[in-house]
Amino acid sequence: MSEGEEKLLRERARGYAAARGIEITGRLGWGIHGSVWKITGKERSLAWVLKLHRHTTPWRRERDCYRRLQETGTESIAGVHLPQLIWDDEEWLAIEMSLVKRPFLLDFGAAWLDERPEFPPGVWEQSDADAAEKFGEDWPRASSILHALAAETGIIMGDVHPGNLALR
Fold first, then answer.
1. All domains of the chain, ordered by start, with CATH?
2. Which of 54, 101, 132, 148 fits a disulfide with 139 by CB distance 3.0 to 4.6 angstroms?
3. What does the alpha-carbon distance between residue 25 and residue 31 come to, in Å, rounded to a whole number?
């Protein structure tokens, strides 16, 4: 993320917080889709998380995945915690969700519901091979969790790595 994009997201986060009457208490991370902050407010006694997206398409994907988790009542998969949707706002491209502890699975900006998209031959296989390399000896467990997520909720992860499927 460029310095200008980072500054713009920081300003949007401040504006969003003011509009919602919440307080940003720290930055948790950033990625290709946006930035994530820890927040607090009068409406909840515990801290929770705000993710602001840069673009509408990944925001919608992520929002739809969190709504699916909410609809199915899914809070965990195979002992791995899943954030729960608290609030979403399309105008701000914002998602507020619960804070989770390890082991966790999060970041659904590159996920799909119910069907894998069509890619040229070999793309999914290469993606699995890349993930297996990143996870090392944890890949069988990670793969099992991803298959369970798809079977139980219809959520198909398109970008998985130890940062968003944190097992240890």
1. 3-166 (3.30.200.20)
2. 132
3. 19
Cβ–Cβ under 8 Å, residues 39 and 17 = yes
* Total-model pTM: 0.91
Whole-number Å distance between alpha carbons of 49 and 142: 24
Neighbour-count burial of 113, counting CB atoms closer than 10 A to its CB (0-12 exposed, 13-18 middle, 19+ buried): middle
Encode pLDDT of 35-51 as tens digits: 999 999 877 777 899 99
Instruction: Please say whether the beta carbons of 71 and 15 come within 8 A.
Output: no
Task: Determine which helix (DSSP H) or strand (DSSP E) holds 38, and give its type and residue range.
Answer: strand 34-41
Alpha helices in 91-163 (DSSP H): 123-135, 139-153
Taking the C-alpha atoms of residue 58 and residue 64, their distance in angstroms, rounded to an integer, is 10
